[in-house]
C-alpha cells in the first residue's frame, strides 16, 4: 500500500488497484469530501462482519436483501477512543430461527475484529528516498 497527500486534507491509500480517499470535516480544515480515516476504520468492522454474514447466508441460499447491520460505538470522553462497539445484526421476520446464533458466530469471525482483539506491533519510522 502507498499513501499519498493529494491536496488540503485529502489523503489517499492506493492498494491493489483501488484508491481509498479520506478527508477531514470542514471544522478540522478539510472539505468533507470523503470519510475520515477513523470513519473508514469503523466502517471496516461493520463491512467485514457483513461479508462473513453474506457468505454464511449465500451458502444456505438465504436472502440477505433485508438484513441490516447497525453499528454503534461508545467513547471514552477523555481520549475520544471507542470503549464499546456494538454490532446489531437486524434480521427479517422470516429469517430461519435455527440460524440466528450461527449468523452471530459468522460475524464474530471478522478478521478486522480479530485483529483489534489481538493487535499487531506497529513500527513507525522515516526514511529519505532519492
Instruction: State the secondary-structure class.
Output: alpha+beta
State the distance separating the first and last CA atoms. 19 Å
**Number of DSSP strand runs:** 5
- The ordered H/E elements are EEEHEEHH
Could you say what the CATH topology of the domain at 35-117 is called? GMP Synthetase, Chain A, domain 3
**What's the CATH architecture name of the domain at 35-117?**
2-Layer Sandwich
Which strand order spans the largest sheet, edge to edge or round the barrel?
1-2-3
Low-confidence sequence ranges? none
Query: What is the quaternary state of this protein?
Result: single chain
Q: Helix tally?
A: 3
CATH superfamily of the domain at 35-117: K homology (KH) domain
Average pLDDT level: 97
**Overall morphology:** elongated
Gyration radius (Cα, Å) is 18 Å
Hey, roughly how much beta strand do the residues contain? 15-25%
Helix content: 25-40%
CATH level 1 class label of the domain at 35-117:
Alpha Beta
Can I get a quick summary?
This protein has helices at residues 37-59, 100-108, 111-117; strands at residues 2-5, 11-15, 18-22, 68-75, 82-90. With 130 residues, the protein is an alpha+beta fold. α1 crosses α2.
